[in-house]
């Protein structure tokens, strides 16, 4: 039972990392204003990120298939 808190912390961190990307859509108009572009052009930032994430995730999973999953999760969260 003493290691159960580690699972909850990792789950919380994974949730926060995953949902933090959606914050950009909430402040997209401000990002566009700061960059001096239209909202549609700034919205492409979300599209490019999503595509890179969708394409890169299976590739990285295949490359790291033999690693210990707990260590891999910790390293990737630390890198992020």
Brief rundown of the structure:
With 80 residues, the protein is mostly helical. The protein is built from 5 helices and no strands. The protein starts with a helix and ends with a helix.
Radius of gyration: 17 Å
The number of distinct β-strands equals 0
What is the count of structural domains?
1
**Rough outline:** elongated
Order of helices and strands: HHHHH
Kindly state the mean pLDDT as a whole number? Answer: 83
Structural class: mainly alpha
GO molecular function, one term: transmembrane transporter activity
Domain Major facilitator superfamily (MFS) profile: 6-80
Membrane topology: Multi-pass membrane protein
Transmembrane segments: 7-28, 40-63
Relevant terms:
80 residues, 81% helix, single chain, mainly alpha, elongated, 5 helices
Set out the fold topology:
Elements: H1 4-20, H2 23-26, H3 28-35, H4 39-63, H5 69-79
Helix pairs in contact: 3-4
3D architecture notes:
The mean pLDDT is 83. The protein is mainly alpha-helical and 80 residues long. The chain contains five helices and no strands. It has one domain (21-79). The protein has helices spanning 4-20, 23-26, 28-35, 39-63, 69-79. The two termini are 28 Å apart.
